[in-house]
From TrEMBL:
Organism: Lentinula raphanica
Keyword hit for DNA damage: no
Keyword Signal: yes
InterPro entries: Arylsulfate_ST (IPR053143), ASST-like (IPR039535)
Residues passing through the membrane, by range: none
Pfam entry (one): Arylsulfotran_2
Protein name in UniProt: ASST-domain-containing protein
Key words, A-Z: Signal
Phylogenetic classification of the source organism: Eukaryota, Fungi, Dikarya, Basidiomycota, Agaricomycotina
Leader peptide range in chain numbering: 1-23
Amino acid sequence: MVFFFSSTVALLSLLSLPHLISASVAYCSNEEYESGALGQSPYQTYNAAPYKPVQLNYALPPADCPSNSQVSGYLMFSPLGDDLTMTGGGYTMNPNGTMVYFSSGFGARVILRGVFTYQGEDHLGIWVSDGTNTVPAGHGSGWNILLDRTYNVAAKITTSGLTVGADLHELHVTTNNTAIITAFPTDETDLSAYGGSKVGYILNPVAQEIDIATGKAIFTWKALDHISPSECYAPFGTSSTGYGTATDPWDYFHMNSIQKNDDGTYLISSRHCHTLYLVDSAGDILWRMGGKNSNFTMNDGANFTWQHHARFRGPGQLSVFDNGATDWEQDIPYSQGLLLDYDESAMTVSLSSTRAPYNRTNTVSQGSVELLSDGNSIVGWGAMPYISGHDQSGEIMWSAQFAVAGSGISSYRSFLQDWTGRPSIPPSMKVTSPFSNNITVYAWWNGATEVVSWELLGSRLISPLKTTSLANASKTDFETALVYSGSGYTYYQVAAHTANGEILSYSNFTALDGTTFGPAENQTITAAPLS
Ligand SMILES: *[C@@H]1O[C@H](CO)[C@@H](O)[C@H](O)[C@H]1NC(C)=O
Ligand SMILES: *[C@@H]1O[C@H](CO)[C@@H](O)[C@H](O)[C@H]1NC(C)=O
Ligand SMILES: *[C@@H]1O[C@H](CO)[C@@H](O)[C@H](O)[C@H]1NC(C)=O
Ligand SMILES: *[C@@H]1O[C@H](CO)[C@@H](O)[C@H](O)[C@H]1NC(C)=O
Ligand SMILES: *[C@@H]1O[C@H](CO)[C@@H](O)[C@H](O)[C@H]1NC(C)=O
Ligand SMILES: *[C@@H]1O[C@H](CO)[C@@H](O)[C@H](O)[C@H]1NC(C)=O
Ligand SMILES: *[C@@H]1O[C@H](CO)[C@@H](O)[C@H](O)[C@H]1NC(C)=O
Ligand SMILES: *[C@@H]1O[C@H](CO)[C@@H](O)[C@H](O)[C@H]1NC(C)=O
Ligand SMILES: *[C@@H]1O[C@H](CO)[C@@H](O)[C@H](O)[C@H]1NC(C)=O
């Protein structure tokens, strides 16, 4: 009896231990994850695929956790931070926490920016920097790329006529196939009025619109030409805002979002001036919303400070992530995603709805608000490593974390978006023979969204490579194991199947000793090309 009792207890406690190794789906209300007992950045591992993606935990779980089947699309986010095990890429993940794509291989620092329509087709936008030229911290000089649905680079986008490349704060592709980007050059200026030197240095952020095909700038707006530092709130001469020197310029304005509208105007957000500026194509300011010189009366609850990601959301409506905090100041109890109604004749702004965070925390930097077509919304909590879903009234429905709160791991913006990817690079595989007469093959295909099952094929000879079907397995995670209990085949290959059993791609052949060969001749891809 005693033996049975204690072994049951032992078994139960074993089962409740965190399954850190090879966890494949999101955890649900895992308190050890939240508390940091599993480390600052719990991660997943695979048997063969060389990736260690972050492990999700639904701190506020949906009813069907981990599926979260009420949302459709992919979570797209880009963790940055010292404690990450895998760096240099952003993620596309299923809502259940299994990885679909890790955007590595482009540069040292990579931010996945979501899906954009370019030349009539979906593209993934990615900001890349080689890791140099990131002074001061929080900015970057790099470039943007647009990947087509085969993950080939369709466009490379950077600044034109400036001393620095594209910064990480904005990428937005317009209906005219132009890109809206930010840049943060340092300019010399007289800072004596603010406590600095006569020969002082300031970050003078630039909004540029670039014609993607030619790389030419068709609009360039430099903050300091239009906005005096006296209009802003970031103190001069602190470690967070800069001391006004050439290597530590004053970050007076901090441009962090730009939206180009169909009427040719630009909505520019300045975090450090607490203001959204509507600017015309000549660069003139049509109005200011928020801040010291607001043209709008900000009604109760409609005011914001240190904000991010301002976007028009239809006539008379816009969304903004109200940090209400920086690392040196906290204005409100917790950060929030706002939907605001504005009236350009009465010049008033009113609160439509708020989105509050799980655990009522504030986010000292970064953040985003995405409005979905059904009126629900997704909030990325920036410096807090959480992504949450909200209903039409703004009530929180679920919240997923991709690292421990306070770990210093952040995601600049986070989205839920639809995407179809069919990589031009064939699937990857690894052949293992753990037991005699037992071949286990691991298959994966980074970025492929259409694979529903994998087929294992074998050939006895290298010439001709004549294949026999050995096994099938449905795909439920990034990596899939296929097991063949038998012998007699020396060369193995995997084929990726759609839901209809059509073949999307064949991998190369791999011999039992790991040597790889090209694919067989004349193997037919039966899936229709992407339309
Ligand atoms: C697209 O180009 C047209 C014609 O120049 C212009 O009127 C419109 O404002 C542009 N829209 C955007 C979003 O750039
Ligand atoms: C906004 O306010 C400025 C003065 O602060 C004024 O010159 C300008 O006309 C106002 N614009 C609108 C659209 O009210
Ligand atoms: C908005 O205004 C209210 C009332 O003045 C104030 O309590 C609150 O802190 C302000 N919000 C922000 C984000 O500053
Ligand atoms: C909620 O946030 C507070 C303050 O950051 C923290 O001390 C607490 O552990 C958090 N609670 C949970 C359940 O994460
Ligand atoms: C083959 O190996 C796999 C593990 O790789 C194991 O799950 C399976 O039971 C083995 N089958 C046989 C017939 O040995
Ligand atoms: C695997 O599935 C394909 C059809 O999708 C079928 O032709 C093949 O025979 C199956 N292989 C095995 C070993 O069952
Ligand atoms: C995770 O979600 C994806 C997309 O819905 C699904 O294809 C996959 O089977 C799920 N995996 C698990 C382990 O539930
Ligand atoms: C697949 O084979 C082709 C042709 O031999 C070769 O160019 C390519 O590098 C191989 N790919 C992999 C992943 O082994
Ligand atoms: C592949 O197709 C070409 C053209 O139809 C043919 O000449 C060649 O013999 C085929 N190769 C194999 C291995 O069947």
